[in-house]
User: Which sequence fits this backbone?
């Protein structure tokens, strides 16, 4: 496959070109008329031919030129310009573009079905490659984005405490998605700025069960945190008693005090413990 890259095409300011073409055509018309002794429409014919070279290019836009099937260059300079007559141009936008992929269903590393979607931010960096190296560069970007998303998502679990996960390592996932997609799209002259997850959830068929699992884990973690801190408070209370000279507390009484304090701190309902010494 022939791989093309951007190269500058010949072009000059369109208004200057009008003056040059008009002056040259008028001079030739007068010269040929005096030489052949009759009026020749050289001026009109020349203008018609040369007028095909005029083009207008807006900011952040490029024109890829071909001359009878041969690539002759790319114009990225904006304004009213004149280039090679009878050349065919393809307009390519150089603006930064973003699009959202469709929400797709993928199995994560643990085999759980999840739904994911991503936002892709990109721009054309080489207009010639975008036009000639792939059939339709926009469709190419869309298809490759979905393919890379499926591949990367399958490498990570949805959630995990022991390894990188989709929920816990968003920056790492973004970086890997961007690098992988850039590698695929470099052939088409596309620069990828960022690929970031815009949607992440369990598939509907397991969403309810996985939500209960997450709630259970959250409750257990909260209980663990409360108990650990309650033990610290109890130890502080006992140490305070001993520091203030309260030494006639039996082991059974200490156990009762600890039990009452633990109930007070951990219970989800209001309690009215009786703490006696």
Assistant:
């Amino acid at each position: 496959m022939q791989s093309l890259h951007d190269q500058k095409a010949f072009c000059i300011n369109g208004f200057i070109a009008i003056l040059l073409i008009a002056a040259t055509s008028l001079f030739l018309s007068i010269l040929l008329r005096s030489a052949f002794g009759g009026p020749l429409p050289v001026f009109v014919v020349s203008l018609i031919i040369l007028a095909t070279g005029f083009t207008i290019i807006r900011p952040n836009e490029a024109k890829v030129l071909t001359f009878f099937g041969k690539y002759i260059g790319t114009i990225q300079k904006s304004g009213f310009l004149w280039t090679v007559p009878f050349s065919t141009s393809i307009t390519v936008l150089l603006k930064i573009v973003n699009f959202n992929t469709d929400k797709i269903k993928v199995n994560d590393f643990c085999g759980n079905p999840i739904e994911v979607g991503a936002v892709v931010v990109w721009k054309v960096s080489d207009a010639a490659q975008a036009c000639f190296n792939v059939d339709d560069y926009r469709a190419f970007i869309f298809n490759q984005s979905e393919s890379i998303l499926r591949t990367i998502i399958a490498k990570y679990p949805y959630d995990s405490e022991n390894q990188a996960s989709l929920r816990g390592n968003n920056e790492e996932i973004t970086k890997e998605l961007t690098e992988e997609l850039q590698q695929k799209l470099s052939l088409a002259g596309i620069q990828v700025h960022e690929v970031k997850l815009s949607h992440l959830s369990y598939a509907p068929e397991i969403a309810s069960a996985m939500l209960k699992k997450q709630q259970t884990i959250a409750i257990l973690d909260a209980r663990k945190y409360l108990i650990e801190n309650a033990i610290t408070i109890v130890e502080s209370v006992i140490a305070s008693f001993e520091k203030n000279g309260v030494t006639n507390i039996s082991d059974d009484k200490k156990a009762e005090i600890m039990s009452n304090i633990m109930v007070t701190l951990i219970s989800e309902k209001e309690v009215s413990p009786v703490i006696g010494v």
The chain has three domains: 12-92, 97-202, 207-266. Helices lie at 14-36, 42-50, 127-132, 137-153, 170-185, 204-243, 251-266. Residues 204-243 form the longest helix (40 residues).
